[in-house]
Amino acid sequence: MGKKIKVLIAKPGLDGHDRGAKVVAMALRDAGMEVIYTGLRQSPEDIAKAALQEDVDVIGLSILSGAHMKLCPRVLEFMKQYGIGEKPVFVGGIIPEDDALELKKMGIFEVFGPGTSLEKIIDSMRKIVK
Amino acid sequence: MTELSLEKLKAEDVKEISKALTIIENDPIEAKKIVGALDEKDYCVIGLTGSPGSGKSTLTDRLASLFSLKEKIGIIAVDPSSPFTGGAFLGDRIRMKRTSRNDNVYIRSMASRGKLGGLSPSIYDAVELLGRCGFKKVFVETVGAGQSETDIANLADIVLLVLAPGLGDEIQMLKAGIMEIGDIYVVNKMDIEGASRLKSRIEAVLDFSNHRKDVILTDGIKGTNLEELARLIEKELQFLKESGKIDEKRKKRKRFNKLNTVFQELKELPDEAIDRLVEELKKLTGGR
């Protein structure tokens, strides 16, 4: 037994497209990580609370609804409120470049747009946990 | 104890409980230290087992929600780890949306990490930690179980065996193993055809043996009969307490906790050490 990387994959807000989240979750699983998937339409507070209870190493948000500029800061706010503001948050989805820069300024660790390879996602998560 | 605050743990701080559970999952020796540093408390363990997709998570969510009105409830939901990569996809929380925002309910997902039997190697310490952190009832949901995942019977005070219509006839119920370990039999998805037939078949099979057990029809999604199921659980707990059987269950839990720890430690030993142990064991058992 050793330390396993634990990841929370969550979909905040009103967005029913979860194929991306599932593909990433499966890839992380196959890379030997323990992935907690919380399902569709989660509120930012639900996500922060799940991350707190599960004590995950990394949080991955999948957003395809276009509401990323509203949802991401809310998730970060609740995480701070729950005392887990230090945990790295990744965002995946259709995020314009300008927004991605803004999100990173806000405290999002990395933004993965369409076409990002699964290897890149796995590597970034491994690097940050170490 | 690295970077864990015992004070906060004793104050039942959620973040600290979460951190403690992570340590318990990763380090069995440290786990014993953490649990040992907390005072023993009165709590009970309710296990839910049954085939994949029978509705264990949904029922756990419903029950936790009902019981949380008067006490703190802990949930540990176990899902399988991959035998190839060691990774896991833990999806029980998806069905637990009713309680995910309830401050009286704590939910934790766990991977089975190569342990057969339906639970995870660190489950005993994890459950004990929650018990000592003020959770009055700890629900343990096993991985989707087949026929022989019966470890939950050693851990729980009460086992709910969750069944759904459409998965085999009476012969399946006569088989040894999982069908024997239920204290309460739950036929979930009662809206599906065949549910009441399944209930009467289980009752018929249970009649072959002497002890009468409750069989109940439920609909986890709609919540039908859930109050009645909660009442049956309280009734069974009451019976265990009055008959003194609860002490036997707790003794058993402690014994299996120890055995589980020994086994986890043995697994790490090299072959020569195992050989020496076998010799020592012969002395203990008188050469049998």
UniProtKB/TrEMBL annotation, chain A:
Coiled coil (UniProt feature): none
PROSITE patterns: B12_BINDING
Keywords: Cobalamin, Cobalt, Isomerase, Metal-binding
Cofactor field: adenosylcob(III)alamin
Superkingdom, natural source: Bacteria
Keyword Chloroplast recorded: no
GO molecular function terms attached to this record: cobalamin binding; isomerase activity; metal ion binding
Domain B12-binding: 4-130
PANTHER family registered for this protein in UniProt: COENZYME B12-DEPENDENT MUTASE, METHYLMALONYL-COA MUTASE, MITOCHONDRIAL-RELATED
Record's protein name: Cobalamin B12-binding domain-containing protein
Organism: Kosmotoga arenicorallina
From TrEMBL, chain B:
InterPro entries registered for this protein in UniProt: GTPase/Isobutyryl-CoA_mutase (IPR052040), GTPase_ArgK (IPR005129), P-loop_NTPase (IPR027417)
Superkingdom of origin: Bacteria
One Pfam family in the UniProt entry: MeaB
GO molecular function terms listed in the Swiss-Prot or TrEMBL record: GTP binding; GTPase activity
Keywords (A to Z) from UniProt: Chaperone, GTP-binding, Hydrolase, Nucleotide-binding
Record keyword Chaperone present: yes
SUPFAM superfamilies: P-loop containing nucleoside triphosphate hydrolases
This protein's record includes keyword Cell inner membrane: no
Family: Belongs to the SIMIBI class G3E GTPase family. ArgK/MeaB subfamily.
NCBIfam families, alphabetized: lao (TIGR00750)
UniProt-recorded name of the protein: Methylmalonyl Co-A mutase-associated GTPase MeaB
